Task: structure prediction
Amino acid sequence: MTSIENTAQLSAVANAASARRFTLAIYAATLFFSALLIFAIQPMFTKMVLPKLGGAPSVWSVAMVVFQAALFLGYLYAHLLARLLTPGRAAIVHLLFLAVVAASLPLSIANGFGTPPEYGVTLWLVGLFFTSIGLPFMALAASAPLLQSWFTATGHKQAANPYVLYAASNLGSFTALIAYPFVIEPLLSLQTQISFWSAGFSALAVLISVAACFAIGREVDAPRHDAQMGARPTTSQCLRWTALAAIPSALVIAVTAYISTDLAAAPFLWVLPLALYLLTFVAVFRERPWINHATVQRLLPYGVAPLAISAFGGDKVFWFVIIALNIFVFVLIALCCHGEAYRTRPHRGRLTEFYLWISFGGALGGVFAGLIAPNVFNNTYEYPILLAAALLVLPGMFKSGWPRFLRDAGPGLFAAAALGAIGIAFDPQALIGELPQTAFAVFLVGLVALMLFNTRRPARYFGLIVLALVVTRLWQPGAGRITTVRSFFGVHQVVETTDRSHYILYHGTTIHGAMRVRDEAGNPALGTPEPLTYYYFGGPISEAIEAARGWRGKLGEIAVVGLGTGSLACHRREGEQWTFFEIDPEVVRIARDPKLFRFLSACAPSALTVLGDARLTLAAKPGQYDLIVLDAFSSDAIPVHLLTREAFAGYLSHLTPHGVIVAHVSNRHMELVSVVGAVGAAEGLTAYAKQDRAANDFAHDYRANAIVVALARDSADLGDLPSRNGWQPVAKRNVTAWTDDYSNLLGAIYRRKFGD
Result:
């Protein structure tokens, strides 16, 4: 061999070694970027959909189901490519798929999805997501298992355990989800986000091409046979992987619904549980996990015990602590399940098969929590069911077989079943009587102590957890439940106060109206009901309506966005035609049932009720209104799409030349006066606001302080409102008017907490 040939050979070897040094970095970067795109599309596209459907937490829940189903289809496609084709041929097919997807960009809502139907919204939304972004999501989802599969063929020294690359993938997902609410959403308009995403998709195709080159030519054993792929997993192993993936996948939806119902239906809250869920993969899919698997298993019982007695709480005074506890336990469960899945992972030759079962479990969990549970349960029962199911993966639970498990767990499970049967047949609170809250709290503390005392006996601990969940669901001190209903838009409860004097409507933990049902002597309250909570006579909402009516003498057509209990109906005067726009059919049923609330039947029996999203139904309804009352924001889960310039332009097109818009913007966590003021100013409106301070004893008179903004084209149209006590022009602040393309919820939260 000549010296030239030797030099060439040595150079080739050196180049190959150099290339292998960069192999891991290229694959990790490609997986990171792919995941970054896939999890940027989730909050971004969901934000695009909100103007069509409103701000219900269930929008995100259904979106999660679609994303998990698309993830499974992407993993199935990747599994088939890896089993049937060499890396080189698989790369060609996948790049062609990416090219087809790129031709359909930019992302947009598919044609044919206009106004949502009154019923069957869930299936309509599933169709919208799949049709609009199903293919891009599948193409991106397939990249993770495909790239890990190709990495095993590169000859890299770490190719023996390609599972560690999954950490890079989930780190990209986590980065996207955290960056979206804190960087992307506040700084970039929606259209700019879409443009950047399309450019990123093209860049990813280039990275995938480069990564494939490292595997091409080294596929001498592909397609591979079972002998080179490790033992085929048993059916029980596959089912176990499915269950380990399904539990945290379902919990991420349940926990998200819990948080977003208590705060706001907004991407910045939706992404928090999902980001933590993904971070658990990063933490455990590695040779040296961030936290030892055994430590997680030991900690889990100590977190679930206090959560079990608070999962069905009523008013959450210490809401931040309870939310933090829920998130903490959720992370422990996800770490436990994902750590167990990684511990039992198969040979690298079965990698795509393993991920296929994991994604299948994720899809099943999503379907259960996002589609089945809301249509089967009238409350969020899926949450405690999943908490209990998560405990079954604890070590030693079935160590001695089913007979021993049933012996240990039996007493708690039997007691829970007996109480459940009694609760179905009778009212448990009526049977027990009015137990003092202190006594019940002492009982719960004792139950928690008993659970913690049995953490080393997992089956007995499991039975006690189930018992605690049943007890706290059946009996809650402080109020008696009259009825509970669940819809796509949340859980509604009508409760009777402890003194049996009032009925109160709750949506989640937010009060949506109250009515006196008995007088001080305990007799049924008769006659015209008096509006309470934010709507009491003399409050700022009442003042705004009276001022709009004042200089005219009377109003003609009035539109009210948001129904609640129908309290505003009792502000109606003779000759006025009131129309209520309500998105939730269950709210309409409750408000129109005189056995529950009599505001509509007593004060406005001829009032029209239009079902559907107000932004769409109000735009579709002919005619103009002298007064439009926006009362969809008293809940903390605010529909952002009703506060944008596009929304206000629609209101103005249906407002008479001298009409008035009254926006009720009371909110525990967000400052919305400046948002409404900025939008109003952008649309040429003058705005006055008032923060009520007169109602200070809700427990006594059931009146609540309201924050209200009144807007008109001319201040004269507001009558004497500007001169009334407490009404001030909305001050100009450094707040950008919200649009369908831009909103900044974090800014609203910051102002509510810290002011300017």
Q: What stands out?
A: The chain has a mean pLDDT of 82.
